[in-house]
């Protein structure tokens, strides 16, 4: 997914039309796999740290989720759609998170809403689904619950593994390094 440090055009130039982007030629794309639907949204806004989806993308998401109502869907975007309690990052979250929630609430097949941007693992209930924010595979951010810039911390690089166990989707946080990130990245 394209985030605030990315150029969606470069993403499309490199991977557009391939299976890695569901054959699409834009940074919004869908992969309808046999057991799961993956939806990648483009929440990037040129020149801004915060994100926005916009009505056109939300309308298309509504259509995609209705197309295979019995198949679990993962809705993926860079910016968290709700505040996570870290003021610095909440100030640059998804601007139309409430509008996204209104779309998701019309569907019962959203197994997870997946985001990044925060650089540390966060889980929350969201729109009758579960929002899982992934840690970073590079630098982890501090848990800065008061005003100020969260510095980077020497915590392990990690990723999330979403596993279908029986009838339930389970999310594991998987550290893949020792504490190796630099202290103070800003
Ligand atoms: Fe970001």
* CATH homology group: GpdQ, beta-strand dimerisation domain
Helix segment tally: 4
Integer tally of domains:
1
Relative helix content:
10-25%
Strand order of the largest sheet: 1-2-3-4-6-5
Which second-level CATH architecture applies? Answer: 2-Layer Sandwich
Query: Strand fraction band?
Result: 25-35%
CATH level-1 class: Alpha Beta
Identify the overall geometry.
globular
Name the helix and strand elements from N-terminus to C-terminus, one letter apiece: HEEHEHHEEEEEEE
Structural class: alpha/beta
Mean pLDDT: 94
Please sum up the structure shown:
Helix content is 18%, strand content 26%. With 186 residues, it is an alpha/beta fold. It has a single domain (8-149), classed as GpdQ, beta-strand dimerisation domain (Transcription Regulator spoIIAA).
Labels describing this entry:
186 residues; alpha/beta; Transcription Regulator spoIIAA; six-stranded mixed β-sheet; two-stranded antiparallel ribbon; 10 strands; 26% strand; binds fe (ii) ion
């Amino acid at each position: 997914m394209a985030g605030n440090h990315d150029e969606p055009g470069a993403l499309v130039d490199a991977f557009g039309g391939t299976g890695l982007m569901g054959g699409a030629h834009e940074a919004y794309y869908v992969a309808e796999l046999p057991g799961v639907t993956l939806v990648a949204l483009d929440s990037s806004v040129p020149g801004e740290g915060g994100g926005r989806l916009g009505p056109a993308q939300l309308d298309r998401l509504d259509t995609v989720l209705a197309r295979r109502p019995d198949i679990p869907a993962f809705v993926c975007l860079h910016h968290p759609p709700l505040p996570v309690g870290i003021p610095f990052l909440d100030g640059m979250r998804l601007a139309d998170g409430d509008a996204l929630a209104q779309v998701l609430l019309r569907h019962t097949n959203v197994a997870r809403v997946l985001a990044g941007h925060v650089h540390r693992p966060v889980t929350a209930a969201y729109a009758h689904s579960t929002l899982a924010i992934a840690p970073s595979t590079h630098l982890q951010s501090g848990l800065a619950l008061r005003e100020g810039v969260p510095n980077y911390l020497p915590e392990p690089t990690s990723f999330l593994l979403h596993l279908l166990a029986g009838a339930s989707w389970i999310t594991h946080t998987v550290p893949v390094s020792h504490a190796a990130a630099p202290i103070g990245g800003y």
